[in-house]
Amino acid sequence: MILITNLIKQTTRLLCLVIVLSTTSFPTYAEDIDKAKNLIAAVITDFEQAIIEKDQTKFLKLFLYPEVTWVGVLSAERYSKMRKTNPDIIKAPYGPQHTPASFIAKIAATQGRIAETFQNVKIDTDGTVASVSFDFTFSYDGKVSNAGREHWLLVNTSEGWKIAAVVWPRNSLPIT
Fold first, then answer.
1. b/e burial code for range 74-98 (CB count within 10 A of at least 16 → b)
2. HSE value, Cβ hemisphere, 13 Å, CA-based, for 30
3. d(Cα 174, Cα 162) in Å, to the nearest integer?
4. What pLDDT, in 10s, does the model give residues 53-111?
5. Are 60 and 100 in contact (CB under 8 A)?
6. Are 68 and 60 in contact (CB under 8 A)?
7. Containing H/E element for 157?
8. Does residue 88 sit in helix, strand or coil?
9. What's the Cα-to-Cα distance from 116 to each of 43, 119, 141, 155, 165, rounded to whole Å?
10. Most buried pick, 8, 25, 113, 140, via CB within 10 A?
11. Is residue 15 pLDDT above 80, yes or no?
């Protein structure tokens, strides 16, 4: 009799646990991905705002490391034009002078309004790593100086989403 009573108590507890768990709302994978996409979108907004505000500290906090991959690739047209005056020009320069820090330092030291705006943003993530691509327009005092399709890689760290790589085209304008 005691064995049956204990079995009934254990079965009742298990049934209660199943009912509680089945009615409790847990985040789904899709909700986690949506949350990650919203956090990544905030990084994109912070990037835009840091450029407009010429805020070096805010800008550099967006990156995984000070020297992440940061490559502006000359379009074929622009490369061809530039080779005429500089045959040693590098199509995809990379090195210590090509970093997020050097980029934002030049912006901060420049008079006038500088902005980079993004449209047609596509975020692909599993919640741990992400790729982002978008159409960008870079302008100085309202005049577009470059435009094209930019690509980022991001990682989700203990400090939030951080940019690990940025590549973009350096086009001859006007872009058609």
1. bbeebbeebeeeeeeeeeeeeeeeb
2. 0
3. 32
4. 999 999 999 999 998 999 999 999 889 988 999 999 999 988 888 999 999 999 999 99
5. yes
6. no
7. strand 143-157
8. coil
9. 14, 10, 11, 22, 17
10. 140
11. no
CB-side neighbour CA atoms (13 Å) of 55: 12
* Residue with the two structure tokens 């995809």: 92
C-alpha Rg value of the chain to the nearest Å: 25
Domains of the chain, earliest start first: 28-170 (3.10.450.50)
What span, in angstroms and rounded, lies between the C-alpha atoms of 119 and 136?
6
| Residue 117: strand pairing partners | 137
Q: Which two tokens stand for residue 10?
A: 């254990």
Residue 77's nearest CA partner among 59, 88, 91 is: 91
Q: How far is CA 1 from CA 5, 10, 14, 25, 47, in A?
A: 6, 14, 20, 38, 70
Closest of 135, 129, 122 to residue 41, by C-alpha: 122
Quickly tell me which residue has 């030291």 as its tokens. Answer: 109
In degrees, to the nearest 5, what angle opens at C-alpha 57 toward C-alphas 52 and 63? 95
> Are 68 and 121 contacting, i.e. CB atoms less than 8 angstroms apart?
no
Mean pLDDT of 35-49: 97
